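I'll show a sample.
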Amino acid sequence: MKKVLSYIFSFLSFIYLVLAVFSTICLLKKNEYGYPQFNDKTLIVIDEKSSYFDSGDLIVLKKPNNNDVNINDPVFFYDTDFRKNTINIANVINKDVINENETTFYVNGKSFSSSSLIGKVTDSVKYPFIGKVLNVLTSRWGFFFIIIVPFFILFIIELFVIYTEIRYGSKKK
């Protein structure tokens, strides 16, 4: 029974360590808009239910080539109006190709540059509920209480164990 509990504790410790490392990497890899970005893939947590996604979904988007985005394609884009970085979903109404690296997309009375394009809705990968967990782990207080405090407590315990070992030594000789 002791061995089974040891395996369960080891497995849970491993899961916790993976979550700690992943949330730390997500915090360190935020782009200029405040979202975790790994090369051409962006992680987005859906806050409000839409016609495509539910609240709390984690969406992984790959930035498409400008030529791959067609008219009537639903896309995610950074909306920087009023100095507020938000993410919107809209259908592309028109597009103007300026050069091979730059395209202007038009959606619902707005226009945005291809540098603000995040990805197509049809090419996204959805993970239900994981977004809520990621939001808690990467929030200021969530990261502090769920990641930093337990590691600090383990550090203090290890210092105490080292101190008692040095102070009293091993009884075996």
In short: DSSP finds three helices and ten strands in the chain. The beta strands are 37-38, 41-45, 58-62, 74-79, 86-91, 94-97, 103-107, 110-113, 117-120, 125-127.
